[in-house]
Structure formats: C-alpha cells, structure tokens
Amino acid sequence: MAKTLVQEFTKGLWAEIPPFRLVLGLCPTLAITNTLENAYGMGVAVTFVLAFSNILISALRKIIPSKVRIVAFIVVIATFVIVVELVMQAYTYALFLKLGIFIPLIVVNCIPMGRAEAFASKNSIVRSALDGLGRGLGYTIALSVLATFRQVIATGAITIYETPITLFGPAFEPFRFLVEAPGAFICLGLMLGLMNILGKK
Amino acid sequence: MFGDLAVLFFSCVLINNILLIQYLGNCPFLGTSKKMETATGMAMAVVFVLVLAGIITWLVELYVLVPFNLKYLRTIAFILVIAALVQFVEMFLKKSIPVLYTGLGIYLPLITTNCAVLGVCLINIQEDYNFFQMLISSFAYPVGFGLALVLFAGVRERILLARTPKPFQDTAIGLVTAGMLSLTFFAFKGWV
Amino acid sequence: MRELINMVVVLTGISLASGGLLASLRASTQERIDQQVLEFVKGPSVRGVFKDATNDPIATRFQLKDGQIVRTFFVGELEGSPRGVALEAAGKGYKGEVGLVVAVDTQTGKVIGIEVTTHSETPGLGAKAKTDPAFAAQFKGASVSSPAKVTQDGGSINAISGATITSRAVAGGVSNAFTIYERLKPQIEQKLKELRK
Fold it and tell me: B192 in a domain, yes or no?
C-alpha cells in the first residue's frame, strides 16, 4: 500500500509519533523535558539530523554496499550530529550547556538510526525527507507537550526563551517531584497510557 | 586514594545510577527486561563491552584527538570505536570462547546503539577522569545498569501476571514501575 | 574481491566528504565558538572580579604573547578610565590545578578581586575556596610587588580550615598572576593607553 507524500509526512505527527507510539529515543525524552526550552531545542536538533541523514542515506542507498551499511549510516548520522554540536556552540551556547551530553548522544538515539535502516535505505529522496521531517516534528511536539506539563506543575513557570516566566501567584505549591528522575519516568508512563486511550487514528 | 575510588564506585553504581538517575540506556532497559534471563545476559554484555570501550576511547582521546586538535570529532571517533569494538568482540567470542558467545552473543549488536555505552565514555572525558578513575567509572556505571535492569526484570515478571488496565499494559506500566524504582535509588542521594 | 574494493571505496568516500564538511564548518565557526566559551565559561568570573566596572570586560579584551603562550587580558573601566586588567593563572592544588581569575588595578598596583574558576578540590573543604567569598576577599588590596602567602608561610592570608593545601594553591596562583603581570607590565600599559584614545 503506497502512501501519498502528505501521508508520509503526517504519519509521524500522530499515528507513529515518536516516542509515544514508537517507543524509541527515550533517554532524551526523560532527561531534557524538564523545561520547554530544552525540549524544543532538542527536538529541533533531532529533526535536523533526522531530515539530513535521511536525505543523504536515501541519495546514497544504491551505492552503499549492504555489508557495510550500518557503519556508513553511523558515519553519516554522526557527521550531522557534529554539525549540530558546532552550530549550537557558536550560536546558542547556553542551550548547548544545558542539553550537555544528550547532543552527542543523538548519534545513538534509535530514531535516526532506525529510520535510516527501515525507511531511507529503501525509499526515494523526497519520501525520505518528508518522513524525516514529519517524525522530527512529531518528536518535537511530543517532547514539548511532556516538558510543558512537567515544568508547569513542578515549578509553576515555563521557559520559552532563556528566562522562565512565572504563571501562578505566590499561593502555588510547586510539585518538585515531576522534574526529578522518578517523576520523568512516571509522567512518560502516564502519557503513553493516555495515548493508548486516545486510540490510533 | 583508595577511599576516593571507593566513593566514586558507589556513587556511579547507586547515587548516579546511569539508568534511573542519569536516564541513559533506556531503550534496551525496556526492551530486555521482560525476562530475567535476557536481563542478566544484557547486563553482563554491557559490563564486558563498556570496560573495554572506556579504556580504548580514553586512550583515543589522550593520544589521538588532543594532540591533533581534533576534539570536535570526538562523537564520530567514539561511536566508530565502539561499533568496531563490538564487531571485534563478537568475532573473537564466536571463535575463541563459544560458551560466552552463546550467552552474550545476541545482545552484542544491540550494544552499539545503547546510549549508556557512548554516554559513559563521554562522561569519562567530560569529568577529566584519570586512568584509575576512568577504569572505576567504566566498570561501576554498567554494574549499576545491570543492577537496575535485573531488579526491574524481577518486578516486571510479576507485573505480567497482574491485571493491569488495558491502555497501560506493557510499556506504560513498565515506565511507571521504573519511576518507583528510580524513587528508591533517590534515597541514596546525600549518602556520600 | 570486487565487492571488497567497492566497500572500501564507498566508505572512504563518505568519510572524506564528512571530514571535509566538518573541517570547513569547524574553521568557519571557530571564532564564534571561542567567543561563546569566553562569555559563558569565563564570563561570570571576569564580571565577578570587576563588580564596579562600567563597561563589559568580556567585550574589551586583548591578547599578549608571553614567550610561547598567548594570554588573554580583560579590561575593566573603573571611575571612567580603563585601568583594571584581569588575567588568568593557576596554582597546584590538592588534586590538580586550581584555576583563577585575578584583577589588578594598574594605577595603584593592587588587587581588585580574585575568583576561583575551576578546581577539583574536596567538596566542603578545599571547594570552599570557590564558594566562600570571605576567603577570596582577603586578597583584595594585596600589592602585586610581593607574592601572596598564607599565614602558615608567613603571609597575611588566613587559610581555609582543613584545606591548607588548597589555600596555598590559591595564594600561589595569585602570586603567579603577579609575576605574569609584572613581566608584561610595559605591554599591558601600552595596550591600555591605546584603549584610552
């Protein structure tokens, strides 16, 4: 069943949205969804890597010998990850410090690797680009939703750019638990359950 | 000297547990924790590879990346070292120690994309560890990983028998349980 | 055989392309990255030692050659004229080096302030060199002509209790800064003169 180009893009936004539907790329999902800024920063970085690695791997899919394809994919993905690292250091250093080790770890994030192997190495450039963009955008949305929930409840504030904006009055009792590690796991678990209740459309 | 290393060991295993506190290596955590047997296999494979990977990446950083001013290529260099190492270990075990291979073999390919491995190698560099500290951390982090994985697998085997609400079955309840486990590891904070 | 050659050629090609792309990107972003690192890593300490400065000391900086090493100096404007310079130095601590930023008033030859930037000392003891402002404040007003010393060594700096080695490291680092300052004094004054224009 061939999908239309639009479907190629939109499937990543709901039906196969990572990490809720496809349980991949969990580590950053748990680790950096403590503020909204971190979440969409990470989302944009992953989208960039995913879209460009998909395009390049799709373009090279006929000349990469299948025996060494994994190594070739790793080199391509790692190259774009370093591009992101350098650009972030040059222009958004504060965010780079906050995301820390999770930027280089995009290399081993299962999403780019998984898409390279399962999709880009078998499909045309346009389809691969749309697939990468769609999933990257879906990932960004998912991270942002989770981060908004966690940050607002845990600190009563939201960080859109650099400084947090306080939302509630002094009577607000912050629920710090949610920004700590156990809160991250439980929150993501509940989110997955919620997605299952909403159903797959 | 030994006191400091012991403190480092326990803080890597318990206080900064790689899985439950530092959030690294969650994909294999959820993937291989459904059965106790796969959990122990994965845990051992990670300890084995990470000690080797830690030593090699530390040497690569010291003798290749720093002298040639190529620190910005660290990510790509480390991941290639790990990928090559995993391949090599797989071939070596298959030929020389088949007993170990039957136990660990199927988990080895999964380790390349386990972010705990690359993560610990990067932490070793970022924290400026010397050789002994690096050795302890490369051993203690995967031990902590194994500990959390085996504990979690034990709990999860029980959950499979329980009646869970349908939308929460499998991964969702797994994550909530992992949260509880993470909470217990939180108790170690402030110990050192 | 053919397959093997193919594999080697493709992998080499991809690696070369990747290396070329990254090297050129690195070259074009290098300057901005260095600036960002200064801003975020050293920025807080440099601004900390120049609390009363009316300019942005990170933006006003110059470099001088000290033998083989290139050193960066940050300039702070005090009472309307650029007379403060901050420089980096290090002393040997209990575990590795203790990094410092030392600011000197070029007119009086006295210390404006010091701040510990990097260290790996024991938390709760040596680490107080960075967290306890009272310790660093003792260096304020010290003259650059004589090395700073802790009281155990016949100086005037009260060591942090339980952390004599770290305190000595800080005093030694400050003294190192003094020697660098004295050695490069003519060039520093020359640069400051240019800034006044």
Answer: no
User: What whole-number distance in Å separates Cα of residue B27 and Cα of residue C193?
Assistant: 61
pLDDT in tens, A34-65: 899 999 999 999 999 999 999 999 999 988 88
The Cα-based distances of C118 to A89, A149, A191, B46, B190 in angstroms read 20, 36, 41, 33, 23
Question: Which of C125, C112, C102 lies closest to C52, judged by CA?
Answer: C112
The Cβ of residue C112 has, within 10 Å, a number of other Cβ atoms equal to: 23
What is the Cα A95 distance to its own chain's centre? 16
CB contact under 8 Å between B30 and A26, yes or no, is yes
Residue at B1 is within a domain: no
* Cα B23–chain centre separation: 11
pLDDT of residue A47: 95
What are the pLDDT digits (tens) for C35-69? 888 777 777 778 877 877 777 777 778 888 877 78
Rounded CA separation B123/B116 (Å) = 10
Tell me how many domains chain B contains. Answer: 1
User: Chain A residues within 8 A (CB-CB) of chain B?
Assistant: 23-28, 30-31, 70-71, 74-75, 78-79, 81-82, 85-86, 101, 104-105, 107-110, 113, 180-190, 192-194, 196-197
Written as tens digits, the pLDDT of chain B (192 aa) is: 678 888 889 889 998 899 888 888 887 888 788 888 888 888 888 898 999 999 999 999 999 998 888 888 999 999 999 999 988 888 888 888 888 788 777 777 778 878 889 999 999 998 888 899 999 999 999 999 999 999 999 998 888 888 888 888 888 898 999 999 999 998 888 776
Domain, as residue range, for A169: 5-198
Closest chain B C-alpha to C22 CA, distance in angstroms: 8
For residue B128, the enclosing domain spans: 8-186
Q: Is residue B46 part of a domain?
A: yes
Chain A residues within an 8 Å CB radius of C11: 68, 71-72, 75
Looking at the domain assignment, is residue B191 inside a domain?
Answer: no
Number of domains in chain A: 1
Read off the pLDDT band of A1 (50, 70, 90): very low
Contacts of residue C170, defined as CB under 8 A and 6 or more positions apart, other chains included, come to C91, C98, C100, C114, C116, C129, C135, C136
Contact A105 B119 (CB under 8 A): yes
Q: In sequence order, what DSSP letters do the residues of C17-44 get, joined into one string?
A: HHHHHHHHHHHHHHHHHHHHHIIIIIHH
- Cα–Cα distance for residue pair C143/C155, rounded to 1 Å: 12
Residues of B in contact with C96 (CB under 8 A): 128
Residues from chain B that touch C22, judged by Cβ atoms under 8 A, are: 72-73, 76
